Amino acid sequence: MFIINCPYCGERDQTEFTCHGEAHIARPDNPSEISDEEWGRYLFFRENPKGTHFERWTHDHGCRRWFNVMRDTVTDQIIKTYKMGEAKPEISNE
Amino acid sequence: MSNQNRTIYGGKVNREKPINFVFNGKSYIGYQGDTLASALLANDVHLIGRSFKYHRARGILTAGSEEPNAIVQLGLGARTEPNIRATEVELYEGLEASSQNCWPSVNFDIGAMNNFLSRIFPAGFYYKTFKWPPSMWLFYEHFIRKAAGLGQSPTAKNPDRYEQKFYYTDITIVGGGISGLLAALGAGRSGCKVLLIDENPELGGYLLDYNFSINEKDGKKWLKKIIEELNGLANVTILKRTTAMGYYDYNYLTALEKVTNHHAEFSSTLPRERYWRIRSKKVILAQGAFERPLVFADNDRPGIMMASAGQKYLSRYGVLPGKSVVLFTNNDHAYLTAFEFVEKGAKVTVVDTRDLLNARISEKCKSLNITVFKSYSVIKTYGDKKVNRIEIQQVDKNQNKLTGEVENIHTDCVLMSGGWNPAVQLFSQSRGKLKYDLKINTFVPDKIIENQKIIGSNNGQFNLQENLNESFEAGIAAANELNFNSVEKVNWTGKEEIEFTHSDIEPYMLGKKKVTKGSKHFIDFQNDVTAADIFLAQREGYISVEHTKRYTTTGMGTDQGKTSNVNALALMSHIHNKPVDEIGHTTFRPPYAPQTIGAIAGRSVDKLFDPERKTSMHEWHVENKAVFEDVGQWKRPYYFPQNKEDIHQAVKRECLAVRNSLGILDASTLGKIDLQGPDAAKFLNMIYTNAWSKLEIGSCRYGLMCNEHGMIFDDGVTSRLGENHYHMTTTTGGAARVMSWLEEFLQTEWLDMKVFCTSVTEQWAVLSISGPNSREFLKDLTNIDLSKENFPFMKFREGEVCGVKARVFRISFTGELSYEVNVPARYGRYVWEKFMEHGKKYNITPYGTETMHVLRAEKGFIIVGQDTDGSVTPSDMNMDWIVSKKKEDFLGKRSFTRSDTVRHDRKKFVGLLVNDKKTILPEGSHIVEKALKQPPMKMLGHVTSSYYSPTLGYPIALAMLKDGFSKMGEQVVVPLMNGKIIEATVTDTIFYDKEGKRNNE
Fold first, then answer.
1. What residues form DSSP beta bridges with B389?
2. Which overall architecture, per CATH, does domain B514-596 show?
3. Which of B292, B305, B301 is nearest to B54 (CA)?
């Protein structure tokens, strides 16, 4: 059971949050102009990394804001939380 | 004779306070401070229950939470609990317990014949025997289930109260033995907030049962002072009778506190159990270790117990479990128990697997008249319901075999000690890695993942002196790491008469390389897994430790293999001639010990299980005998029966009232979202499939929402209240989902859009009046001009209704002239009652959700989630009319042209009319190409909605049918579960008022 640092509220228990899968999948600007395959990639294709993963969470039982979480899927360590619209953090190789 | 096995003096039970209890219907007397196990042993009761598979006689193996054998049915009636360890049950006045898994009685048990049939019950017996044919499994399962399980679940509702507590602390220490106590003292003196958890009623751990000295003085007095100091520290909280059950990420622990389980009377103020959810900055594990059984032929008879258990029964409870005792050991420390038994009057013989013995121990044995068989092993035991004789034989260590004459020893109690296994369950749950320690022959903690320390024998460190200093310093260090001040270190000199020593694990565990035929070498006592089963699993290819576990069920009992796991692994290592490290170990999962579901549920039962949502008119509905239906968490009137009407009669009356005069529906539960902002129209254009830019202020529009897959997921009417202000309605069940959906896109995709969404579902009470008389009716109650010209269909007006400020929407879900009157929720009942009073002359009829469903089905209006299932597009629902061709983009649009969504043979939304004009098709019925005698039949679709239409006088149905739009007028067949085959004609979905005149009146 994680402790998640909501960028708006601070550290809270995981039970207050919901995970919504992989982050940084932008909706295509011009859906009508792209191929079925490109559209399918947006709809269905997701990473499943062993290691650093970027994912979207909401603080449902709190501020109800969406934000991004950088989490290690092996250790479940949350490396960073950051607001929507902020750049995707670099993965350090340490 | 009562308490015949009680020693004349000694023990900590209160002999002034006798306690009456009943076991298997017979009354006994124990003392305050006894456990059920110690009191039974005191009364010379050794046969406690029957084993799981072979129904063998079983007694008491241990004196703690690891007990696999002595599990009983405790208490009566609604409070009865199965599989309770007698070794943990504190005796209370009037306690009633009974044996499990035996019939008709524990002494004469029919099931015991399984023991003699055991050649046909090897590991995997059920898998092998009941596998074929597959269709017979359901038949077999019935009998297997009957044979499985140990105790009985209560059949009545549990009357007890369970509570939950959330707790935050700096340091949680699990285990109140010497290591845990000293760590708590170190951390406690530093001033940090400490929670100390121990599963026993008394702190002190194993040192309560053994003699030791601190600074050359009586250790027990010193221990008492340590506990007194801890009790006095305000920053230290001590939980006794509390078992840490789960260890989850980020130092989140769950623990079960037995609050009043041990009371004779159940408390009216205190809960029975309290479930703790603990978050700590640091955790110190100090859970100690379990003594390991030795494996030899028939090592399961009553009277055979762990040496440490014998020690505890004798020193703590003053119970001598036998008078002619054999100690079977592979280590020094167990000799302490031999000495203690001699001192209390028993005759003791020692069988030691080792050939060399510490000189001091040798001498003491000689002086106490203890015969020691060095390099010997117990190879077999005898005795029907209690051990009475054992066979021993010499071990040739070099040749790894038994040798010489078999000797007999008559005995009434065998104490065994095969070394100690650290209780690594919680450590392992916290994802800590284990390694095999060849010095003490067991798994010990290796790599720590959480912010945690593990100390004492829990960490494989058994030396008293080292534990004294290390544990105290671990507490100080933990506090230090949390930025608390250092406190002075203390040097204690601790001594036990005999130190722990290295203990072997093989080959003596079997006494022989091969298993003796005709007897059983138990590895897992609770699940009746023998060494032969482990051998068999390896022979049959179940070599991975996870496979061996599941095939033999070793370690899968309610005790989770606390006494058996390491022996099973050691035997596998022995068979494969590989180090135990390479065999590995299975995964430990929560809970650490069995726990009640009641404690997990806590107060979230009955009325508090799930919130109930009620509209402001709810009490009126109750007073007027509404039958309710649950829609999500909402309570909605289902129908309003009058006199002795059944649902069909009531719905018929309600439907006709709406069609002919006036009906009223409480529609307050509809989801309502207030949207404001300069980009609201732009946003609606992206969210809905149709166009919103040109919607005028004061107008309403129906909209469909699709997800990005192009599938319908909600619908509703949205009205424009002002320049940048909209009022959106959603389905009752979908309100929260739609709200989240809107927020998701505003917060993650279109951050530049200026729109605020606010849920206003509960701010408005909604009275939907419907029927040809609704205009006439409402006219007298409002200042709004209701004329057809000034307030046409799909418009919205503000004004007063019954003197209350109201928003009135002229929209219709029944197909009749309708007004949805929204008033602030607090006026809901007031306006409803005014309506009922004023409506008398129109025979105003309140109706519920069933009538609403029938009326909308007559009009072919869809219900999202009933007629749709998340896999249908607007086109599938014949709703292309609501999908904008002009808009460049909206959610789901791109998916409408995917190859799968443009397929012609997708299921389409159609109407069905049964040819016999009387059968109401069950919803969910399959439409098939050709009805056959039995499945499989080629399926063409299914019925989504089906009712008797009171307006039309015959049944109507809605369905999803493959390529349905091109099948209008065609015949289809619907086979029913009762074997009947119903023929129906495919129609369009509007059954009544096809031109839509009535709602435009």
1. B382, B410
2. Orthogonal Bundle (1.10)
3. B301
DSSP calls for B213-234: EETTEEHHHHHHHHHHHHHH-T
Q: How far away is chain B from the Cα of A42, in angstroms, using its nearest Cα?
A: 10
Question: Would you state the pLDDT for residue B129?
Answer: 64
Which residue reads 């049918």 in tokens?
Answer: B961
Contact B504, B353 (CB under 8 A): yes
Q: Would the CB atoms of B898 and A31 count as touching at under 8 Å?
A: no
Strand runs labelled E in B832-966: 845-846, 907-914, 926-928, 939-949, 954-962
Q: Does the interface predicted TM-score (ipTM) exceed 0.90? A: yes
CATH value of B14-114 in 3.10.20.440, 3.60.10.10, 3.90.700.10, 3.20.20.70: 3.10.20.440
Q: What is the pLDDT of residue B511?
A: 46
Cα angle vertex B956, ends B952, B962, to 5°? 150
Q: Which residues of B touch A40 (CB under 8 A)?
A: 898
For residue B358, the distance in angstroms to the closest alpha carbon of chain A comes to: 47
Beta partners for residue B195, in sequence order: B172, B237
**Chain region(s) in chain B for CATH 1.10.10:** 514-596
List, in sequence order, the alpha helices (H) in B411-503: 425-429, 464-481
Task: Tell me the two tokens of residue B815.
Answer: 């197909």
According to CATH, the topology of domain B671-842 is Gyrase A; domain 2 (3.30.1360)
**CB contact residues (below 8 A), chain A span 49-68, against chain B:** 56, 58, 64-66
Q: At what angle do helices B680-687 and B735-748 cross, to 10 degrees?
A: 110
Q: Please state, in angstroms and rounded to a whole number, the distance separating the CA atoms of residues B230 and B223.
A: 11
Full DSSP string of B13-43: SEEEEEEEEEETTEEEEEEET-BHHHHHHHT
Weakly modelled stretches of chain B, pLDDT under 50 = 507, 511-512
Render pLDDT for B461-482 as a digit per residue (tens, 0 to 9). Answer: 999 999 999 999 999 999 999 9
Q: Residue B651 in contact with residue B854, Cβ under 8 Å?
A: yes
How far is Cα B776 from Cα B23, in angstroms, rounded to an integer? 79
Cβ atoms of B178 and B457 closer than 8 Å: no
The DSSP bridge pattern shows strands B756-759 and B671-676 to be: antiparallel
Identify the DSSP state of B508: T
Positions of CATH 3.30.1360.120 in chain B: 671-842
Which residues are bridge partners to B305 per DSSP?
Answer: B415
Q: In angstroms, what separates the C-alpha of B893 from chain A's closest C-alpha?
A: 8
Measured over the CA atoms of residue B892, residue B898, residue B900 and residue B906, the dihedral's sign is: positive
**Could A1 and B248 be called an inter-chain contact, meaning their C-beta atoms sit closer than 8 Å?**
yes
Q: Which of A1, A36, A65 sits opposite B249 (nearest CB)?
A: A1
Determine the Cα–Cα distance for residues B638 and B628; give it in Å rounded to an integer: 5
Sequence-distant (≥ 6) Cβ neighbours of residue B610 within 8 angstroms: B633
| Paired strand residues for B373 | B351
Per-residue pLDDT at B149: 60
Q: Name which of A20, A42, A43, A73 to mutate to probe chain B: the one with the most chain B Cβ atoms within 10 A of its Cβ.
A: A43
Q: DSSP assignment, residue B266?
A: -
CA B882 to chain A, closest CA, distance in angstroms equals: 19
The CATH class, in words, for B162-289+422-496 is alpha beta
- The neighbour count for residue B158, using CB atoms within 10 Å, is 17
- Structurally, at CATH architecture level, domain A3-83 sits in 2-Layer Sandwich (3.30)
Instruction: Characterize the bridge pairing of strands B324-329 and B347-352.
Output: parallel
Q: Cβ B743–A85 below 8 Å, yes or no?
A: no
Domain locations along chain A: 3-83
CB contact under 8 A, A84 and B250: no
Q: Does domain B856-884+901-1000 have CATH number 3.40.50.10070?
A: no
- Which DSSP letter does residue B293 get? P
